[in-house]
């Protein structure tokens, strides 16, 4: 590992496999710290406070924003999500690799507040494959899928804003490439 790891941000369009890649990498390398976001969303079955998210009320989220305690935050589907700043800085100061898995808007905010962060864009092998992955989930109605695809077009157009692009042709290969960037 480098003497001074820096913050690495993984972003890319919905359905590209960000969570799958991160889970695969962390299974083999649990020492890589993944930031836990705060959210105003209600917990889903099986989600635990402090593990999957820090579940907070709107008023508490407002205070986090007002006090500058979030490195970045965004609203998505009527809920707010944000990265607690102190936890990230503490881990970096301790010399640990830190990974954020966030959306394009969040990545842009991190870039402006921490220009030394490495932004990694996870791209699909092709547009057709991304469409297949999003529609193949079978978990969302057609109008939601269409919104996600519209957003994905915008996110793909922002690829040049990132320092590195990884193409998700193989979860194992991309997880290895991401780990190499972190170390």
TrEMBL record:
Instruction: Name residues in a coiled coil.
Output: none
Pfam families of this UniProt entry?
A: Guanylate_kin
EC numbers on record:
2.7.4.8
Any one of the GO CC terms:
cytosol
**InterPro entries this protein is in?**
GK/Ca_channel_bsu (IPR008145), Guanylate_kin-like_dom (IPR008144), Guanylate_kinase (IPR017665), Guanylate_kinase_CS (IPR020590), P-loop_NTPase (IPR027417)
Instruction: Give start and end of each Guanylate kinase-like domain.
Output: 5-183
Report the catalytic activity.
GMP + ATP = GDP + ADP
Enzyme class, first EC level, given as a word: transferase
Q: Which UniProt keywords apply?
A: ATP-binding, Cytoplasm, Kinase, Nucleotide-binding, Transferase
Q: GO terms for molecular function, please?
A: ATP binding; GMP kinase activity
Cite the NCBIfam families for this sequence. guanyl_kin
Query: What is this protein's function per UniProt?
Result: Essential for recycling GMP and indirectly, cGMP.
Protein name (record): Guanylate kinase
């Amino acid at each position: 590992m480098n003497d001074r790891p820096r913050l690495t941000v993984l972003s890319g369009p919905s359905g590209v496999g960000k969570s799958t890649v991160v889970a695969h990498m962390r299974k083999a390398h649990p020492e890589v710290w993944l930031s836990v976001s705060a959210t105003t969303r209600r917990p889903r079955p099986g989600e635990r406070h402090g593990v999957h998210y820090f579940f907070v009320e709107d008023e508490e989220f407002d205070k986090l924003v007002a006090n500058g305690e979030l490195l970045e935050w965004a609203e998505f589907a009527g809920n707010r999500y944000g990265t607690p700043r102190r936890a990230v800085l503490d881990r970096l100061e301790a010399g640990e690799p830190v990974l954020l898995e966030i959306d394009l808007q969040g990545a842009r905010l991190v870039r402006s507040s921490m220009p030394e962060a490495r932004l990694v864009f996870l791209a699909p092998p092709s547009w057709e494959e991304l469409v297949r992955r999003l529609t193949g989930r079978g978990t969302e109605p057609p109008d939601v899928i269409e919104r996600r695809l519209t957003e994905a077009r915008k996110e793909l157009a922002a690829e040049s804003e990132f320092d590195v692009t990884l193409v998700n042709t193989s979860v194992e290969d991309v997880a290895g490439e991401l780990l190499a960037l972190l170390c």
